[in-house]
C-alpha cells in the first residue's frame, strides 16, 4: 500500500524524501491494514484533506503527538473495501467519509463503523473528503454551542477558509443573517 509517512517532526512544506523533510518518500511497501475488530471497516481512500491540525501535528505543535513513524491525515472519503462480521450499516462498495486522528494519507484506512458516514451517490468524494473537520467544527459551534436561530446575526471572520465557508453555509441553512469577512 502507498502512504505518506512522517519519519520525524519538521517543516511540512518540504517535499517528501529530502534529507530535511519530515516525510519519507512515498512508497508502496506498507502493509494493507487488517480489520481490527468485528465492527471494523476498511476503506479505500479516494480523497483526503490537509487541515491546519495536520500541519501542526507534523511540526510537533499539536496537542496530539502520534508516535513516529506515522501516516498523517484526518478527514477522508472513499469506498468500503472490507467489513468485519459485526458490521451492519455498510457493505463493500458503499461510499463513506469519516474523521481519523491520523492515517488518511494512505490508500487504505480502517475505522469502526460508528465513525463512518454514508456519502450519497450525488456527492463528489473529493468534496466529502473535506467535510468532517470543517463542517463538524462549524456545526458543533453554531448548532450546539451557540444554538444559532433564524434571524440572529452571524459574523464569520475568515470566511474563505474551510471552517469559515462551512460556517457561512450552516448559518444560511439556520436562517441567520450572515456577514462573511475574508481577505
UniProtKB/TrEMBL annotation:
SMART domains linked to this entry: PKS_ER (SM00829)
Domain of life: Eukaryota
Any one Gene Ontology molecular-function term assigned to this protein's record: oxidoreductase activity
Coiled-coil portions: none
Domain Enoyl reductase (ER) residue range list: 18-183
PROSITE patterns per record: QOR_ZETA_CRYSTAL
Name this protein carries in UniProt: Enoyl reductase (ER) domain-containing protein
Provenance organism: Aegilops tauschii subsp. strangulata
Amino acid at each position: 500500500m502507498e502512504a505518506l509517512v512522517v519519519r520525524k517532526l519538521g517543516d511540512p512544506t518540504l517535499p517528501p524524501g529530502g534529507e530535511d523533510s519530515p516525510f519519507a518518500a512515498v512508497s508502496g511497501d506498507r502493509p494493507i491494514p487488517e480489520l481490527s475488530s468485528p465492527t471494523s471497516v476498511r476503506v479505500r481512500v479516494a480523497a483526503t484533506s490537509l487541515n491546519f491540525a495536520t500541519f501542526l501535528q507534523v511540526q510537533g505543535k499539536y496537542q496530539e503527538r502520534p508516535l513516529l513513524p506515522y501516516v498523517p491525515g484526518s478527514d477522508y472519503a472513499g469506498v468500503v473495501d472490507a467489513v468485519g462480521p459485526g458490521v451492519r450499516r455498510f457493505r463493500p462498495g458503499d461510499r463513506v467519509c469519516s474523521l481519523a486522528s491520523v492515517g488518511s494519507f494512505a490508500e487504505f484506512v480502517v475505522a469502526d463503523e460508528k465513525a463512518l458516514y454514508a456519502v450519497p451517490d450525488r456527492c463528489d468524494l473529493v468534496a466529502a473528503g473535506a467535510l468532517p473537520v470543517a463542517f463538524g467544527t462549524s456545526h458543533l459551534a453554531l448548532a450546539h454551542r451557540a444554538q444559532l436561530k433564524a434571524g440572529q446575526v452571524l459574523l464569520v471572520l475568515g470566511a474563505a477558509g474551510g471552517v469559515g465557508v462551512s460556517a457561512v453555509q450552516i448559518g444560511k441553512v439556520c436562517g441567520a443573517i450572515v456577514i462573511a469577512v475574508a481577505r
